[in-house]
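Sample intake sheet
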Amino acid sequence: MKCKVCRDRAVIDIRRHNAGFCKDHFLEHLTGQVAKTIKEFSMFESDDRLLVAVSGGKDSLALWDILLNLGYDATGFYLDLGIGAYSRASKDASVSFAEQRSAKLIVRSLAQEHGLTVPELSKLTGRVPCSGCGLNKRYEFNRAALEEGFDVLVTGHNLDDEVATLFGNVLHWNVDMLGRQAPVLEERALEESGTALVRKVKPLVRVAERETAAYALLRGIDYIVEECPLVEGNVQHRYKEAITLLEEASPGTKHQMYFGFLKKASHRFQQEPDGAEVVACSTCGAPTAVWDPARAAVCSFCKTKALALKRKSEGSVARPPRKRRTH
């Protein structure tokens, strides 16, 4: 296969574009896709301070690399989740990337900040690890962005991630989640508490997972290849596998599904559940949705943390989370 641009030997083919690219033109193409997404969805301005959530994986490090090359003021943020050797390796990859590019990286530890690791949280509360992990990351990413004065929180969710999430939300008709399935989630400020949910954006929604891996390889980015050891049984991965089979049979399926939803259906779903009001959490002050304003509002993070610390002090644990049926 030859490069679509220069007719030199291609190093990768992108079937949904019916095109192959040499190394230089592939890197240019991928950077262009990210720049196009930023502009199309008005994600941020050239003078905004960006906090990039990094995990040491290919997606977040490739995105950080692209943003730096595009000239944005992009600082990385790594949250140590306390998942043994996996967290140590992912932290090392993030630190190494930052050092090689003289980029700023903020590192925080869940155990130091809250006295809990993700494995402990799962054991103490009975939540599946991925659920507790996601809850903690969302909370800490937003808290770091607020405390450090960043304008926008940037995450490395790619096209495959978004399509798998969309597939699961439609399969189970999670209408509340469908209302938040967007490349941009606007800032939601609470003046009375002086806190907010920072503007959150996903510049990789036009880029497939395979393409970020190729970008990282061609750019010499040393990322962690191993998957999180706690991810086994995560139904999200099964959704990815199913949709990838459709993509192989009909290239462009993922793009059509996701961008078709954004264009034709996303406006039909509300960002907040019916009857809910966004107020400040009575414990930490963060915005949270409540249905009865007369009652003290406590966000999901604070509820989960309080339960985990209570059981930890008592020396008790919850029942293990039930495994999902696979047939």
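Comment: The first helix runs from residue 23 to 40. The two ends are 40 Å apart (CA to CA).
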